[in-house]
Specification:
The structure is a homodimer. By secondary structure, chain A is α+β, with helices and mostly antiparallel strands. Chain A has 4 helices and 6 strands; from the N terminus they run ααββαββαββ. Chains A and B meet through helix 2, helix 3 and strand 3 of A and helix 2, helix 3 and strand 3 of B.
Chain lengths: ~150, ~150
């Protein structure tokens, strides 16, 4: 499932391939995504803010996609971020490691009901880039889903 | 000045080169930056949210950099985004065109005083991606500067 998602991202969104973004695993309620530091470096030899922002944005999108298209089995949906808040708390100095909180059962039930009745719904997703147990980037995005 | 900035970005931040981000001109109080759609496309054949986010984030950083390093002549400063809010209002379907509002005289005076007295300051910068006179992306970032 995550291998298929990675192939889809790299094929359809060239920037994710250049950044070498990789959905790695789902651990408890977290989707883990990673990217090496080299293509994502800045002038200070730390993670470029644009790369950090891209990683959290596509990771949270991926969490939505996995719920909507894999778990709920809606196909060819439109999922798009409409708003995001990002806090950059500390520089990232190693390979990028991102944890995204998957929607819980209650949220998934609400979204399914909305999609069945209205054809559209939204999800609020949190994503963090973490290094040595420290949160470097804190992201929250609102994603709309249309079927 | 903008040619030098473009060379710096492309040399030091590989993602900006891949995206072909280009600082084009300063028109009245706006810094104009652009990027072609091709390397920045998504699965819906519109501008990828990660690319849009990266373009506004680095464009607002560039506005800070031009004020601090070119206009005020501080050198080798640390300029970093610490917080950003982004609204994605409409899909981008053509080459990316971004307008960033340069800090005004009063803000520049305040920042210079802060840097001279404390060695650090912050700037709040607005940036928009526009297509056919419609605002597609609205961004505001807070940048800290240290000398």
């Amino acid at each position: 499932m995550l291998k298929k998602l990675k192939e889809k991202l790299h094929k359809q969104i060239p920037l994710t391939k250049y950044m070498q973004i990789s959905p790695e695993e789902i651990k408890e309620d977290k989707l883990i995504t990673t990217a090496p530091i080299e293509p994502n470096i800045n002038d200070k030899q730390t993670g470029f803010a644009g790369s950090l922002s891209t990683l959290v944005t596509i990771s949270a999108w991926s969490a939505c996609y996995l719920v909507i298209e894999e778990q709920l089995n809606f196909k060819d949906t439109m999922i798009a971020v409409i708003k995001s808040d990002t806090s950059y708390r500390a520089p990232v100095t190693k390979n990028l490691y991102c944890e995204t909180t998957m929607p819980n059962e209650e949220e998934i039930k609400r979204v399914k009901e909305k999609l069945d009745s209205k054809g559209s719904a939204s999800l609020r997703i949190k994503s963090q880039i973490i290094e040595d147990e420290k949160v470097c980037v804190d992201f929250e995005g609102i994603y709309v889903i249309k079927i």
